[in-house]
Amino acid sequence: MDLVTENWTPLLMAWYDKHKRELPWRTGSPRDPYRVWVSEIMLQQTRVEAVKTYYTDWMEHFPDIPALAAAEEDEVVRQWQGLGYYSRARNLHTAAREVMEQYGGRVPETREEITRLKGIGDYTAGAILSMAYGKRETAVDGNVLRVFARIYSIEENILSSAVKKDITELVKTRQDPQRPGDFNEALMDLGATVCIPGKPRCDACPLTEVCMAKKAGKEKDIPLRVTNKEVPVEPVTVFVVRTADSGSNKPVPQKLATPAGARRWPTEGWVAPDSVRYLIHRRPEKGLLAGMWEFPSCPGEGKDGKATLKKILAGFGIKIKRVSRPIQEIRHVFSHKAWQMTVYEAVAEDECALPAGWRWIAVEEFKDYNLAGPHNKILSLIQR
């Protein structure tokens, strides 16, 4: 890779000082390492606009590391609900306790120490160390990879380890030694608002004159991102199990709107009377959606899926006397696979005693449980 001879860092910093985004976690210098930490963890896999409200609410509940460390895990996960990828919240909680126990409540100032904390990788470490402590550490994310690939006309796959390593070294050569944190954020802002994927806004870019991809007419073709093939799709059968109706307590049909994430909806939903309760259970403490609550479900589809789930529930003493036709279909995509969920309404013969990790709950109690994201989409079927 040939380096551009011009020192374009002053151009970038001048642009940043004039155009930087106003974000709730961007406070005066020096920055609070805890606030940088929380914001960077939230921003993983989540759009900036979506994070703003969650961040503000989080800080109201857990204003500092001692407050977060003292909280119960369920409280932490409940506050995170809606952001997805819940392991981020659990890791943040665990790491806060590690900071209290091992570092007296202060986030460590070296990469070696900070990356020992649960859930903190190279990028997050670089962000905290540069933005809060003024260390000359890089924070290379997708935005930074894209910006540097275009500036230096790097046509190799930016997702490969070798190219990421090369770009990280380039970032180090251009980082402002006096303002390393601002430099990292300037690159992020440029990538998020100007040097965007697909069709970059070159007319608004402060680095147009030194951009090798622009000079070669390749700014729309770079960067090259070669990803793995499509994730596998797994069929999943879900029962919304409710207690039996009696007399005037029978649910009343009600028209439903189509929420995001649903492929197909029924024409009617159910307004649950006070006497109706619903069955949920808690997922294992390890693995996908660890510790979250969900409606009963199992792998499989159609008759086989329904038969398997009935058998599983019968093993817990829950006898199903009626199952509806499919009332909802949801496709939920994880990082490594997707669930194609077919949802049925099921009526139990009675509200039997349940083993640990299972609950019969009323509609108004759902707010007290951390329902897994895919299953949270089903809640619109259960209306008051």
Task: Summarize the structure in short.
By secondary structure, the protein is α+β, with helices and mostly antiparallel strands. The chain is built from 14 helices and 12 strands.
Describe the structure.
- The chain has helices spanning 9-19, 33-43, 48-61, 65-70, 73-80, 87-103, 111-114, 122-133, 142-151, 161-174, 180-193, 212-215, 302-315, 373-376; strands spanning 233-242, 252-254, 262-264, 269-271, 278-282, 293-294, 297-299, 320-323, 328-333, 338-348, 358-361, 382-383.
- By secondary structure, the chain is of the alpha+beta class.
- The protein has two domains: 9-215, Hypothetical protein, domain 2 (Endonuclease III, domain 1, Orthogonal Bundle); 233-383, Nucleoside Triphosphate Pyrophosphohydrolase (Alpha-Beta Complex).
- Strands 1, 3, 7, 8, 9 and 10 form a six-stranded mixed sheet that branches. The protein has a three-stranded mixed sheet with strand order 2-4-12, with no helix packed on it. A three-stranded antiparallel sheet has the order 6-5-11, with no helix packed on it.
- β9 and β10 (338-348) form a beta hairpin.
- α1 packs across α11 (180-193) and α2 crosses α3 (48-61).
- The longest helix is centred in the N-terminal third of the chain and has 17 residues, at 87-103.
